């Protein structure tokens, strides 16, 4: 009897005092209030300073309170968690503010008229006009660049993973690495020099060539990683059935990794869709609708945004059009990403019963 | 149908490393031959030289002769792809193609090699799945992905896939090592049935399994770590497990190894 009583009073080694679940939120709210209070009292104007003070208070407060109640080890754990949260929020701020500003300023003139008309008869400083010509240009240039860049990139990756041995393979890998680092303006200048040699005028396809140069290394890299993820056992299983190597690659390796490869290509398209420099050099820009990418200057969305800013002498109408075009470009890239995710999910190897 | 294998003076390398040295043996048609021996002694490497899968590994090369009914697999002008159509293989881990359904998995070897009529394919797939004792379990879900089956079923699916192309010889590289005892029993029964039609070579770490399923057993060993593996002896399974002619074999089988 007495023995049992003693046992009951002994502190458990497995249990310890712990803070309730809502503690982090309470500390966050408290430090935010305190941060605003201190900043207002000290007459600080910058909202960034307010936020920083609140963040520091949050981390310190978490450590202090947790150390008192739960002990030092748990306190360190909570500080690590709160640092991750603070870093996440700091990273989120520019993204949210960019999306917010683009949407709020872009929707002003974004409507069907804007999407279906060109700038042909509208002066840059006047309201009206649209981006139809730039959308056509962007779609054609990026589409042609993808038609060139994606197959070459995928086939290079297949060579590197499935066939490449020895010097040639390491040379290809090296040059792909170098190409990844080529600034877009340099790719543009390279094609421009060819254009000058052959005495050609700016046209859309020249821009596509430069964009394809930028796209290829990105596609090679991502496709390579995806092909490496395909288990070797699948290749051996296919070879052991007496299937030739090229059919094994075509019918077993590629279908298994097609989801990841598509995602990689879509991300590469998203990257080149926003390129301005090569388009500026090679396609030149054109306020009129030009459906033919092989002859005459064209427009494109990033170039349109740049020109609305730089050539409008501060007219508000031009600024609004630039924001609306930016919103269209972001939406275009986002739709591409969603499509890529959809394809990746649809094509992913199924494990269902 | 089944063919006989004659190996003489076979040596296999990985780059400059000699993995197995000077192996000679005969594998009789319509029989089960088991390879036993410690890990790293070259059983699997030797098995893979029998359908030219060894050279798929970077740096893999082979010296010596492997005769399949008097035709040298390593002779001039022999296409490894046609060799693998004659000599099929089942791997240690079940590896159905993840993008294909059960039906497509079994039909893969035929479909990837040429065009077949749908009815013809249906017949072959049904025959192969029945041959692998899997038909009754999957006949209602042939269009479901093969990766949804259990491990034992997946391995039988892989066996069905291998026998669908009608090989003359079937190589099995530890086909039961990833499976539970019940699935193992199912596959051992299957091996007993398949030997009526095929020449079967099986690598196993399980000596009871070798004793249960095989007609002849080959014991491999290596002199020391880093040395190439060698064939110590090959004889009727009964003799190997009761009265082997080499001391090392008896030590290994009775657990007094080393």
UniProtKB/TrEMBL annotation, chain A:
Gene Ontology biological-process entries: phosphate ion transmembrane transport
Spans through the membrane: 22-42, 48-67, 79-103, 142-161, 168-197, 203-220, 252-273, 322-344
Record's bilayer topology term: Multi-pass membrane protein
SUPFAM superfamilies, A to Z: MetI-like
GO molecular function: phosphate transmembrane transporter activity
Compartment(s) where it occurs, according to its Swiss-Prot or TrEMBL record: Cell membrane
GO CC annotation, single: plasma membrane
Pfam families noted in UniProt: BPD_transp_1 (PF00528)
Gene3D superfamilies listed in its UniProt record: MetI-like (1.10.3720.10)
Primary subcellular site in the record, as a coarse category: membrane
The protein's name: Phosphate transport system permease protein PstA
Native source organism of the sequence: Streptomyces diastatochromogenes
Lineage, opening ranks: Bacteria, Bacillati, Actinomycetota, Actinomycetes, Kitasatosporales
Automatic annotation (TrEMBL), chain B:
Molecular function terms from GO: ATP binding; ATP hydrolysis activity; phosphate transmembrane transporter activity
Residue span, ABC transporter domain: 5-247
Keyword Lyase: no
InterPro entries in alphabetical order: AAA+_ATPase, ABC_transporter-like_ATP-bd, ABC_transporter-like_CS, P-loop_NTPase, PstB-like
Annotated GO biological process: phosphate ion transmembrane transport
Pfam family, one: ABC_tran
One GO cellular component term noted in the UniProt record for this chain: membrane
Keyword terms, alphabetized: ATP-binding, Nucleotide-binding, Translocase, Transport
PROSITE patterns membership: ABC_TRANSPORTER_1 (PS00211), ABC_TRANSPORTER_2 (PS50893)
Domain of life: Bacteria
NCBIfam families from the UniProt entry: 3a0107s01c2 (TIGR00972)
Listed name of the protein: Phosphate ABC transporter ATP-binding protein
UniProt organism field: Streptomyces diastatochromogenes
């Amino acid at each position: 009897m007495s023995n049992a009583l003693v046992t009951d009073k002994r502190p458990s080694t497995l249990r310890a005092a712990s803070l309730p679940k809502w503690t982090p939120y309470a500390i966050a709210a408290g430090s935010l209030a305190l941060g605003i209070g201190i900043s207002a009292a000290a007459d600080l104007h910058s909202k960034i300073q307010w936020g920083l003070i609140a963040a520091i208070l949050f981390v310190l407060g978490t450590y202090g309170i947790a150390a008192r109640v739960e002990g030092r080890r748990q306190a360190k754990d909570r500080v690590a968690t709160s640092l991750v949260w603070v870093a996440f929020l700091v990273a989120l701020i520019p993204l949210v503010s960019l999306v917010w500003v683009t949407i709020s300023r872009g929707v002003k003139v974004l409507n069907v008229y804007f999407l279906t008309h060109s700038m042909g008869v509208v002066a840059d400083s006047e309201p009206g006009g649209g981006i139809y010509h730039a959308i056509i240009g962007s779609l054609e240039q990026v589409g042609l660049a993808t038609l060139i860049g994606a197959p070459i990139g995928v086939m290079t990756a297949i060579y590197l993973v499935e066939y490449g041995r020895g010097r040639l393979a390491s040379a290809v890998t090296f040059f792909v690495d170098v190409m990844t680092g080529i600034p877009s303006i340099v790719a543009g200048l390279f094609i421009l020099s060819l254009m000058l040699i052959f005495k050609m005028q700016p046209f859309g396809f020249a821009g596509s060539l430069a964009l394809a140069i930028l796209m290829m290394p990105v596609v090679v890299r991502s496709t390579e990683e995806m092909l490496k993820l395909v288990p070797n056992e699948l290749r051996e299983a296919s070879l052991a059935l007496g299937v030739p190597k090229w059919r094994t690659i075509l019918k077993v390796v590629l279908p298994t990794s097609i989801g990841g490869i598509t995602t990689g290509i879509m991300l590469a398209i998203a990257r080149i869709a926003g390129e301005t420099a090569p388009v500026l050099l090679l396609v030149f820009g054109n306020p009129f609708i030009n459906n033919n990418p092989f002859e005459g200057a064209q427009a494109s969305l990033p170039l349109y945004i740049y020109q609305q800013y730089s050539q409008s002498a501060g007219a508000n109408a031009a600024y609004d059009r630039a924001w609306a075009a930016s919103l269209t470009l972001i939406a275009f890239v986002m739709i591409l990403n969603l499509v890529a995710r959809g394809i990746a999910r649809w094509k992913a190897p199924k494990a269902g019963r | 149908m089944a063919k006989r294998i004659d190996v003489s003076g076979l040596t296999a390398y990985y780059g400059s490393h000699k993995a197995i040295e000077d192996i000679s043996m005969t594998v009789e048609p319509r029989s089960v031959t088991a390879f036993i021996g410690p890990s790293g002694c070259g059983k699997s490497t030797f098995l893979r030289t029998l359908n030219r899968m060894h050279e798929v590994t970077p740096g893999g090369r082979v010296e010596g002769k492997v005769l399949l009914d008097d035709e040298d697999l390593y002779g001039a002008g022999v296409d490894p792809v046609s060799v693998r159509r004659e000599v099929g293989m089942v791997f240690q881990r079940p590896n159905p193609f993840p993008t294909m359904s059960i039906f497509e998995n079994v039909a893969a070897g035929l479909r990837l090699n040429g065009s077949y009529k749908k009815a013809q394919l249906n017949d072959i797939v049904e025959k192969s799945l029945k041959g692998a004792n899997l038909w009754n379990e999957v006949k209602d879900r042939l269009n479901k992905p093969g990766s949804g089956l259990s491990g034992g079923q997946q391995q039988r699916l892989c066996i069905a896939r291998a026998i669908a192309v009608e090989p003359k010889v079937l190589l099995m590289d530890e086909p039961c090592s990833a499976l539970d005892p019940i699935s193992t029993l199912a596959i051992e029964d299957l091996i007993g049935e398949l030997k009526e039609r095929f020449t079967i070579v099986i690598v196993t770490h399980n000596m009871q399994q070798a004793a249960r399923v095989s007609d002849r057993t080959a014991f491999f060993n290596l002199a020391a770590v880093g040395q190439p593996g060698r064939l110590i002896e090959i004889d009727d399974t009964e003799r190997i497990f009761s009265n082997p002619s080499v001391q090392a074999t008896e030590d290994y089988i009775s657990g007094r190894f080393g």
